[in-house]
Specification:
heterotetramer; A mainly alpha (490); B mainly alpha (174); C mainly alpha (100); D mainly alpha (621); A: 490 residues; mainly alpha; two-stranded antiparallel ribbon; 19 helices; globular; B: 174 residues; Four Helix Bundle (Hemerythrin (Met), subunit A); 82% helix
């Protein structure tokens, strides 16, 4: 029942916030903040209440008939992996509401409506265990994000929003075809129509069909998790989205892609995934190097941070398809820490853009002298994104590399060089934006207490994940072990 | 019997060609009526008296009369004929003629290849047609009636206001 | 015996003449007339086929063609009147505002 | 007392945290007290631990303290745990003690600088990371400390961020060391993949049992670790960053780029000596790298005109000696030289700091002169440090440690004499550039007036270090006995040079360098200028001055292509694929819309044509 609340609260609060906006904007913002905070508390309760032993099976379930004839059920289920990703969702959700407190001035109600419905969509994606419901949540996530970018974005927002929509929608349709194909194959094999994840797990299918269906799912998730060739929507969408939009895009939407691969691509089509693994790993490593190289070349701050996401998610893709416990746990750890560090970077860049109304690094420089706390926080998160040991990202990336080394030495070495490239863009970002002479002598206010709180929360989270990641690792370890068992030949 | 068929066929073809080449609409109409009457004869030769009669009554009688009526209504006048001559330059005939020739060649090729043995069944009178009409084709009849109704309503709707003004404006400049 | 083969040939020729008429003449009336010719040719082919098999179906279809032709002519001519009132000319090329 | 081991890194880390968070609001005095205080406490604790360790050595000569399990994934269970044995004890005490002195020095040196608390925050963080590196029980924690010190060196080099050159120097240092770290990381993966653990002690036993001497795995692992060490300790080929690192404040150069961080590579090789013993070719490579670096750096140091850059090249050269010692298997000799080097090199930098501060941030030694009687403290401390560096026989610590290395090199099993000759040439060069520096700065005419006398906080640490530079050498024997518990003894290849002969040769080399410098720079200064006048001399001078052209080479070969590739592809060539698709769609639209001419006959013609074609197809099928 609690799972249903997780989805319903943002939905209702979204509508409420929209309605409340007519009377007072702050009421609308507070409703949104309280809703997301409530959800975050719910996930904490769930996390606290679960017994470590029970982590293998579903922690909590909510199951109702929807369309019985075709085996479509409104079936939500929670396990270690989705629990953590939900916590990340509502953590970043609350922070993005806080971060856009002053930034959004017109259409505040509708803004928070969209924001909360995206969070509901994401929660749906992480919880849905019925493929039809999964696809429904997948689409629910898309439309409000389109509005978010198209209405509250920056100069080139419509192009970016339309590009984002086409990329995601097209690939989503591929997934829909794959889902339907899978259901029909399952029907031919067992004679019963079912969209249930549990039933579809063991379907025997001809290898050719399996590969095509796997590709259908993979492409949809590869677009969302920007694999190298399908990533070009990301920089535009991130650059043009408002701060909250960028945070949710970078922090959460990219994770739905990776989650999809872990939950659906590997378990449902083990043989096809295994034979496709080398290509996917190569894509991941290419993504790491290409993303880093491009980030190094950018002059627009948000585009730079966007390309870093391409690079970091390359690690996740590599980790997922290496398919051994180390790499899988590393991939999930990288997902979580990347969500926090890149979310923070976007909030900082948004705050900076609010103050100096530009994202071009050439016009910045020497901001450290006028806003030391903002620059210090930016330095901290830049270090997190270059994988400094002692912070969360390093743990994830090191585990992925360690696991990848087992699979192929060449790829692991190339990925390690990718980490080196990360140093280039991170230091470049800090140097050109914050250090150097204050040529345009900016006089900007430093972080206000609200922004300071957001930054402090994220710094503490990253330090905790970096130095004591055990509780988080233990939560999704059984899930990863189960996925690892599904690899053929284990 | 075949003599009648061939003469009627020739008349039909010549009348149609004449229709195509006339500049004045009314002359073309009259040629068209002649062509339709020739086709009616052919129907008769083919042993379909009922249809032949209908052709004469409805097709030639009703539809063509309607045509003539509208042409009169438009009252195009002599300048229309001169305008037609400007449009009918010989060169314009080439494209369509080539296309039509190919089409005809394909018809002939198809006819030649098809094995249509000459058969001499009896003529099919109106009785049989009536029985078929209200037997198997009952729905078709209903649809036809609806179609006619639609045509009626459309014609009525399109034409009811304009007729008087056309009269008024036209008189001013012959 | 019924000259079926010749019937089809004749309907083919008439149909082709109709097509030429439609393509050549730019005056709307002539286009309508050519269409009538084509319809008539089609009807001839149907009747010939009916005669060949000795079935009334051919003639029934001709009847339907007749009904259709009547409706078509009535609406067509009403439109011609409307167009003439609007454009003061019946040249199809002149009336070509519906363009991509 | 040993259980307090975790406090040694924890207190500086806490100090760094408080300074970072509360720093801006604190007055300079408070920031100095917290900054220096935390290091003082940690130094005192480490001295107590040393005392406890020496009086009652724990079982098997080592004490392990596990705080918590860091990561627990399947078989990979690294813990946050500290391992204290003789080697890490020595390193820890030297690092904390020298850091404390330098913190006292910088309390006064940095006075008036607007980022005062930020400076102390970085320095505390550095000491915390360095101690974590030294005490790390497993290679992953060592890697954490390793990157931490790299980070602090970047932050401190670029401390005066207003000047973009400092930022560039900081980035260069961080990236070049990170290249070495990447190699080391791959080494970690290899070790874990093949030996299943990263705990150093288990690793060494497993390596010894599973890998025969000279096995491919051992060679690969040792080579990769050597890559990391070369990066961090600024040895060939990754040494270009250290001279530029002098852009940082002088206390930073003293602490990080002289005493502690640059020797992290030496510590790593000493800690994983079993691996290098299993891979003789790599061990020999370490010796060769050491020898080559000490020569190259020696020549470059002799041509510099910036006082700090001379000392930077001399640091590279001295670490070359340590690598030479490690290469020939004289593990404890290398650590002994590390200790003495830490003392006299830190001293030299502090004295140089005093001179720079006195001459209002003047760095060019040719514009200094005759400071002998102007800054007596600086002169005498600099002289003692210089003699220790050059190896004044029998008195200075430097002589004992370098002599030990030279003797070991001569008697080593592999390539003894060649390495020894390089070492000797190095000694001549070292004394040449050291005394060149001393004569130019302290003798001759007074070039620029002295504007600021150093306070007590700057002179006392210098004197303490001067004292240690002398006394340090006498403790050679007990030092070696202590290290014997952690590091294997040096195996002599019989028939080599005797101890006395080696030390005599070293003394002679020292004298030769001294006389050469005295003749060239005091007797007739015109000689140096004339040598630089003729074309060959000028070319050679420029070549050595620019660190043998390595900087220019790296810039052309590595930096330019990457920067070009990044800027050329700024608009993401893959994006053009999708723009192409959009363009194709627009083209199709334009083509199709052209067919809508609006002319009735045109459509009729197309219909007729279409039907003709269809019929044709029907006919042919």
């Amino acid at each position: 029942m609690i799972l249903l609340c997780l989805i319903l609260i943002p939905l209702i609060a979204g509508a409420l916030a929209w309605a409340a906006a007519r009377w007072s904007l702050s009421a609308c913002r507070w409703i949104a903040l309280l809703a997301v905070a409530a959800d975050f508390v719910l996930t904490l309760v769930l996390w606290g209440s679960h017994s470590p032993a029970g982590l293998g099976t579903w922690l909590a379930e909510a199951d109702w008939e929807w369309i019985p004839q075709v085996g479509i059920r409104f079936h939500l289920a929670l396990d270690g992996l989705s629990l953590l990703l939900l916590m990340l969702t509502f953590f970043l959700g609350a922070l993005s509401v806080l971060a856009s407190w002053r930034e959004i001035t017109e259409g505040v109600g509708f803004f928070h409506f969209n924001l909360l419905w995206i969070l509901a969509g994401i929660a749906g994606v992480f919880l849905a265990v019925n493929l039809f419901l999964f696809y429904f949540a997948w689409e629910l996530m898309l439309a409000p994000m389109y509005f978010l970018i198209a209405i509250w974005g920056h100069e080139n927002r419509v192009y970016a929003a339309v590009k984002f929509f086409i990329f995601t929608q097209l690939s989503g349709l591929l997934m829909l075809v794959a889902i339907l194909a899978l259901v029909f194959v399952h029907h031919r094999a067992t004679g019963v129509y079912s969209f249930e994840y549990q039933d579809l797990l063991g379907t025997t299918m001809p290898p050719g069909a399996e590969m095509w269906m796997m590709l259908g799912f993979f492409i949809a998730f590869a677009v969302k998790l920007p694999a190298i060739v399908l990533h070009t929507w990301l920089p535009d969408a991130h650059t043009e989205a408002p701060t909250a939009g960028s945070v949710i895009l970078a922090g959460l939407l990219l994770k739905t892609g990776a989650y999809g691969m872990l939950r659906f691509v590997l378990p449902l089509f083990p043989h096809a995934a295994a034979s496709f693994a080398p290509i996917a790993m190569a894509l991941g490593v290419a993504g790491i190097l290409y993303g880093a190289l491009l980030a190094f070349g950018q002059t627009d701050l948000k585009r730079l941070v966007a390309y870093t996401s391409v690079s970091h998610l390359g690690f996740v893709l590599l980790g997922i398809f290496v398919w051994n416990p180390l790499a899988l746990q590393g991939a999930v750890m990288t997902m979580i820490c990347h969500g926090i560090s890149t979310g923070a970077l976007f909030i900082l860049v948004g705050a900076l853009q609010d103050r100096i109304h530009t994202r071009e690094m050439d016009r910045m420089g020497g901001i450290w002298s006028t806003a030391p706390r903002l620059s210090g926080a930016a330095l901290f998160f830049a270090l997190a994104s270059l994988g400094l040991p002692g912070l969360g990202d390093f743990v994830g990336e090191f585990l992925v590399l360690l696991g990848a080394y087992r699979q192929s030495i060449v790829l692991a070495t190339l990925a390690a060089i990718g980490v080196l490239f990360a140093t280039f863009y991170a230091l470049q970002f800090v140097q050109r934006a914050f250090q150097g002479p204050n040529t345009l002598n900016w006089r900007i206010p430093d972080l206000v207490p609200r922004e300071g709180l957001v930054m402090a929360l994220m710094i503490i989270a990253l330090l905790w994940l970096g130095l004591y990641p055990r509780p988080v690792l233990d939560t999704f370890e059984p899930v990863m072990a189960r996925i690892e068992q599904m690899a053929p030949g284990r | 019997m075949t003599i009648v068929f061939y003469t009627a066929g020739a008349v039909a073809i010549i009348a149609t060609i004449m229709m195509l080449t006339r500049l004045d609409a009314v002359h073309a109409l009259l040629h068209l009526i002649v062509s339709l009457l020739a086709v009616a004869v052919i129907f008769f030769v083919l042993g379909a008296p009922f249809v032949a009669a209908l052709e004469v009554i409805i097709y030639a009688g009703a539809i063509m009369v309607l045509f003539v009526f509208v042409v009169m209504l438009l009252n195009l006048g002599a300048h229309a004929a001169r305008a037609e001559r400007a449009l009918l330059t010989p060169s314009i005939w080439v494209g369509p003629a080539v296309l039509a020739a190919i089409l005809l060649a394909e018809f002939i090729w198809l006819l030649a290849s098809g094995n249509v043995p000459p058969s001499g069944a009896a003529t099919i009178g109106p009785a049989e047609v009536g029985m078929a009409l209200f037997g198997r084709y009952l729905i078709g009849v209903e649809l036809a009636s609806m179609l006619l109704l639609a045509g009626l309503v459309a014609a009525y709707h399109l034409g009811w206001r304009k007729i008087p003004q056309v009269e008024a404006t036209h008189v001013s400049h012959p | 015996m019924f000259p079926i083969r010749e019937g089809f040939l004749l309907s083919g020729v008439l149909f082709t003449l109709g097509v030429i008429g439609v393509l050549v003449r730019r005056n709307l009336l002539f286009v309508l007339m050519s269409i009538e010719v084509m319809l008539n040719a089609a009807g001839l082919a149907f009747v010939a086929a009916g005669a060949r098999w000795g079935q009334p179906d051919g003639q029934v279809v001709f009847l339907f063609i007749l009904a259709m032709a009547a409706a078509e002519v009535s609406v067509g001519l009403a439109l011609v009147l409307e167009l003439y009132h609007q454009y003061k000319s019946l040249d199809t090329d002149a009336i070509s505002r519906m363009r991509g | 007392m040993l259980p307090l081991l975790w406090l040694v890194p924890a207190i500086p880390f806490a100090g760094a945290l408080t300074l970072a968070v509360l720093g801006p609001r604190m007055r300079e005095k408070a920031a100095a007290v917290i900054g220096t205080g935390s290091i003082a406490v940690s130094a005192v604790i480490s001295l107590f631990i040393a005392a406890a360790f020496l009086t009652a050595p724990p079982a098997a000569g080592a004490y392990t303290q596990t705080l918590w399990t860091w990561i627990d994934v399947g078989s990979f269970r690294p813990a946050i745990a500290f391992y204290l044995d003789a080697l890490s004890l020595v390193m820890m005490t030297v690092v904390t003690f020298v850091s404390f002195l330098i913190h006292v020095y910088s309390a006064e040196f940095m006075r008036g600088d607007e980022g005062y608390s930020r400076f102390f925050a970085y320095m505390n963080l550095f000491v915390a990371s360095m101690v974590t590196l030294l005490l790390a029980d497993n290679l992953l924690l060592l890697y954490l400390g390793w990157e931490g010190v790299g980070l602090c060196s970047y932050l401190l080099i670029g401390f005066w961020y207003q000047d973009p050159a400092n930022g560039l120097a900081g980035r260069k240092a961080f990236i070049v060391t990170r290249i070495g770290d990447t190699a080391m990381a791959v080494g970690l993966f290899l070790l874990f993949h093949n030996l299943g653990t990263l705990r150093i002690q288990d690793l060494m036993h497993a390596a010894q049992s599973q890998w025969p001497v000279g096995s491919a795995y051992a060679i690969a692992a040792a080579a990769l670790l050597l890559g990391g060490a070369v990066g961090k300790s600024a040895q060939l080929p990754l040494q270009t960053w250290l001279p530029d690192a002098m852009a940082g404040p002088t206390p930073t150069s003293a602490l990080i780029h002289a005493a502690t961080m640059v020797t992290a590579g030496v510590y790593l090789i000493a800690r994983t000596h079993v691996l290098f013993a299993l891979a003789p070719p790599v061990q020999f490579a370490v010796a060769v790298v050491g020898a080559a670096t000490l020569l190259m750096a020696g020549f470059s140091a002799a041509t510099q005109n910036d006082i700090k850059r001379v000392l930077a090249y001399s640091t590279i050269s001295q670490i070359g000696y340590m690598f030479l010692a490690l290469g020939v298997g004289a593990w404890s000799a290398a650590i002994f030289h590390f200790m003495t080097h830490a003392f006299f090199k830190a001293l030299l930098f502090l004295a140089a700091g005093i001179v720079i501060e006195a001459l209002h941030h003047e760095h060019n030694i040719f514009r200094m002169g005759g400071l002998r009687n102007e800054l007596p403290v600086a002169f005498w401390t600099f002289l003692i440090g210089g003699c220790a560096l050059a190896g004044l026989p029998l008195i200075t610590a430097g002589y004992y440690s370098k002599d030990l290395i030279l003797w070991s090199a001569a008697n080593s099993t592999a390539g003894g004499m060649g390495l020894w000759a390089a070492g000797m040439a190095g000694v001549v060069l070292t004394s040449l550039y050291t005394f060149r520096l001393i004569f130019l700065v302290f003798f001759g005419r007074l070039e620029t007036a002295v504007s600021h006398r150093p306070g007590l906080a700057m002179t006392v640490p210098a004197c303490v270090l001067a004292f240690l530079s002398i006394v340090g050498g006498f403790g050679k024997l007990p030092f070696e006995a202590l290290l014997a518990t952690a590091l294997p003894q040096f195996r002599e290849a019989g028939g080599g040079m005797s101890e006395a002969l080696a030390s005599a040769a070293a003394g002679l080399a020292f004298l030769a360098g001294l006389l050469a410098a005295w003749y060239a720079y005091l007797q007739n200064p015109s000689l140096a200028r004339s040598a630089a006048a003729n074309p060959a001399g000028r070319l050679l001078h420029r070549f050595w001055f620019s660190d043998w052209g390595m900087d220019w080479l790296y810039d052309r070969v590595f930096i330019r292509p990457v920067v070009w590739a990044a800027s050329a592809n700024k608009a993401d060539v893959i994006d053009s694929i999708y723009d192409g698709l959009a363009g194709a769609a627009a083209l199709c639209y334009r083509l199709l819309s052209a067919t809508e001419t609006g002319k009735l006959r045109w459509y009729a013609a197309w219909i007729a044509g279409g039907s003709v074609v269809t019929l044709a197809i029907v006919m042919w099928l």
